[in-house]
Design goal:
Largest sheet: 3 strands, antiparallel
Number of domains: 1
CATH topology: Rieske Iron-sulfur Protein
CATH superfamily: Rieske [2Fe-2S] iron-sulphur domain
Bound molecules: FE2/S2 (inorganic) cluster
CATH architecture: 3-layer Sandwich
Shape: globular
Distance between the termini: 10 Å
Number of strands: 9
Low-confidence stretches: none
Number of helices: 0
Strand order of the largest sheet: 1-9-8
Structural class: mainly beta
Mean pLDDT: 97
Radius of gyration: 13 Å
Order of helices and strands: EEEEEEEEE
Helix content: under 10%
Length: 108
């Protein structure tokens, strides 16, 4: 099982991007003590979401935001609630938090 990072690497209401062994670029964010991971691909035009490094959240750190056209996504579900891809969703990445404090890619 591949360890992506430690929980301490991702503070509450922040996000970090990582590359998986398969070469996928993903990001993880923490909300209310839980961790959520998604492929770094906007469902609108299949581009990366962030413009600045690790800037995946909107100004209020409430939603995930695509920097290209400003689509907003729910942190917990990845669903787009505003923008050109409304109703579509980010692709979730299955992760597991283990007792060693590591965040791992879940086995398929
Ligand atoms: S490419 Fe993300 S909202 Fe258009």
């Amino acid at each position: 099982m591949f360890k992506i990072c430690m929980t301490d690497d991702i503070p509450e209401r922040e996000a970090r991007s990582f590359e998986t062994p398969e070469g996928d670029v993903i990001f993880i964010t923490q909300r209310d003590g839980s961790f959520y991971a998604y492929q770094n691909v906007c469902p609108h035009l299949q581009v990366e979401l962030e413009f600045l490094e690790n800037q995946f959240l909107d100004r209020d750190k409430e939603y995930i935001e695509c920097s290209t056209h400003g689509a907003l996504f729910m942190v917990e579900s990845g669903e787009c609630i505003m923008g050109p891809c409304q109703g579509q969703s980010l692709e979730k990445v299955a992760i597991q938090v283990h007792s060693d404090g590591g965040i791992y890619l879940a086995d398929e």
